[in-house]
Design brief:
Blueprint lengths: L1 H7 L4 H8 L4 H12 L7 H24 L5 H15 L15 H15 L9 H6 L17 H7 L1
Length: about 160
């Protein structure tokens, strides 16, 4: 179906209507839904190839614009490069998912993530040392850095 082909190739529904000869965008959308009995999902590998080609074309234009020192050309080139890297999976993963890890597996993955991000490994608190520091009331402070006295607060209310 021509309407869906144009839509997948990047045309808006309004453009599809104009190209194919429908009255308006809503009519073009309705025609595709009626033809397929639903609005189809685009084929991901085909779309990746399509966008890869588009990014290549944009990259060449950005390179020309950078050479001509057009304002914003370098920023556009960087944005194109970032999108291409994300599309091709060249960027480092942004999400790590462990399903039912053991404590040791979790600790190993945490260490790898910390190392990759340049963060020093967290230091675990010693619960016995925290207990030896004293009563929790001594740790609470008011607005001015003074200990909070629960009895004074209760008199005011």
């Amino acid at each position: 179906m021509q309407a869906w082909t144009h839509r997948v190739n990047g045309s808006t529904w309004g453009e599809v209507a104009e190209i194919v000869g429908y009255h308006d965008a809503a009519t073009a959308l309705r025609a595709v839904k009626n033809y397929f009995a639903t609005l189809p999902e685009p084929n991901a590998p085909e779309l990746r190839g399509l966008w890869r080609g588009r990014l290549e074309a944009l990259w060449w234009q950005a390179a020309i614009d950078v050479a001509e020192q057009r304002p914003g050309a370098l920023r556009a080139g960087v944005a194109i490069a970032q999108r291409a890297a994300a599309l091709d999976g060249l960027d480092a993963p942004t999400r790590l998912e462990l399903t039912d890890p053991t404590g040791q597996e979790f600790a190993r993955m945490l260490a790898l993530v910390a190392q990759a991000s340049g963060v020093n490994a967290p230091i675990e608190a010693d619960p016995l040392e925290l207990e030896a520091q004293g009563d929790d009331d001594e740790l609470l402070e008011g607005d001015w850095g003074e200990p909070v006295d629960d009895e004074e607060d209760s008199d005011e209310h």
